[in-house]
Structures
1.
Amino acid sequence: MADRATPPQQSVQVSESERFMKLKDAFISKYGLPPAFYARAPGRVNLIGEHIDYCGYAVLPMALEQDILAAVTPTQTKIIQLANTNPVYLDFNVHINKIHIDTAKPLWQYYFLCGFKGIQVELAEICAKCEHYIGTEGGGMDQSISFLAEKGTAKLIEFNPLRATKVKLPSGAVFVIANSCKEMNKAATAHFNTRVMECRLAAKILAKAKGLEWQKLLKLGDLHTELGVSLETMLSTVEQMLHPEPYSREEVCQRLGISQGELFSSILSQNTHNVTSFKLYQRAKHVYSEAGRVLQFKKVCDETPANALQLLGELMNQSHVSCRDMYECSCPELDQLVDICMQSGAVGSRLTGAGWGGCTVSMVPTDKLDSFLAKVQEVYYKADAQRAAMQTQSLFATQPGGGAAVYHEA
Ligand code: GLA
């Protein structure tokens, strides 16, 4: 059930870990003193439930063993000094009263500064809010699994209030992450927020058509709660009340009875003011069907029928198709990689996270793992020089890892 939302304090024998030692040495050579403590946050992979957290629906991610490690020491000055062991990311110093986050140009240090700017409320929920300072209106999956993860299990994450429930993944398969090597910076482009706004507009238009108080309603999930019906009924409501042709700005305003000025000032985010057409039918269909797939995925994990792996694989494949065709958050590289993963022995494969680039997650029977990795390497990575150069960090199997923690040297 609901778990802690603050990182545990652990002690670590730094001299016994090569990774901690390297970080400590780099810290000392840069700042002339040892770190006071270390903090770790794991990576995450969403197994199922894409683009529905910000609509109010549960998602099903797990934390990875792979992580980010930071070494920290408080200082007497009001200057935040940031450095990265990856030389691509340059050192950065800023006075705490002069923090400026340029959302048009998201630099690595801004992610730290967003955290600093927002650190007054509870961590998991506040971290989701922190991300909004970078300009994307994400839902909170990443931050929640980072804090609430437990080694060995995925979690069903429900929102409002935030809750995490263990989901034990069936034995006999492993999850493999594969980076498409296509980058999509969701803070620098309007792709992500356009989808958030399309969901918001669909929720408002449906709410108004149903005679509800639509002004305050922001999420498709809240509309569902208000109506108190099943997800299947929500899907047929979308089919009956929305049309598949894109909605123009004029039509949206007319359906809501508002001016374009009001649309900009009280509904759309800043970086979506230029968007002129909205695919409300397709986006809402994705959200309600994907929310149902998350619940089915959990049910299969809980009940573990004999064909559990096949059922989970099918749900993952359906999720990818819906992301690709209805939500349009895939890209040719991700689609190609998913096909290759399926041909290489996966029982299910899908884009994971925001999409338009980034990674896929595939469920692979344990006894096929080696041949799967070899085939994907051959067909996707070795075929392209840039991908081949990134191959070692781009394709790996992972088990559910533990959550974020703060470490003190023993
Ligand atoms: C990004 C966001 C998450 C979630 C996913 C899509 O990772 O940060 O909150 O919306 O996209 O499922």
2.
Amino acid sequence: MTGLVVAIDGPSGTGKSTISRRLAGELGLAYLDTGAMYRVATWWCLHLGLDLTDHEAVAAAVRTIPMEIGTDPARPTFAVDGHDVAREIRSTRISTAVSAVATNLGVRPELQQRQREAIAAELQPGSFSGGRGVIAEGRDITTVVAPDAPVRILLLADEEARLQRRARELHGTADAGALAATRDQVVRRDADDSTVANFTTAADGVVTVDTSTLTLDEAVATVRAVITAADENPRTQEQQ
Ligand code: DC
């Protein structure tokens, strides 16, 4: 494999992060979690005491954020100004607030540009992947950040399956209470996020994988097969 870029999009609860991370590890590629970049930006703005509805102040803060993202799939790292924020960016406080930053149209071009730079860096010999390439996942990677990536995949799953997965992840169970508590994080956030990126229908040339009825291992195998087929026969992918 020489310099492969794999773009994976989809709503929350489709298994996107787990699948991307696992395959990056298996294939010797870097892993870029772009959702985490929006989370880090949110952490930074709250840390500065900004009102997230002040679009201009938030966009200005994000333009100068000293964000460092590590792309090792075995140990992704997220720091701001040397401060490790990996744990804090997964808190409910950030999960609830992140859409306000991700839907800010002054923020997106800045983070999209940093994502393009991070992807380009992984095609260079001195990078984490040593030039082998990267799996980048998010909501607009197949369409805006890396529309020319040789492999582009949209992961989908029905709402019930996505809610159940997130409820198990967050609460260890998918009973009625856990499902209700998870609904905001899945349904409301995806509805907000879909106002600025289309991650529910595949753009031309993007392969859709529906994980609703697949186990994690089956979903990993399906996505692996799409990547391998495209890497072995790039023209087939272009023709899809
Ligand atoms: O995948 P996640 O839950 O970590 O994403 C965090 C937020 O960032 C979520 O509200 C969706 C948004 N996001 C986005 O708008 N564009 C991306 N490329 C990745 C994430």
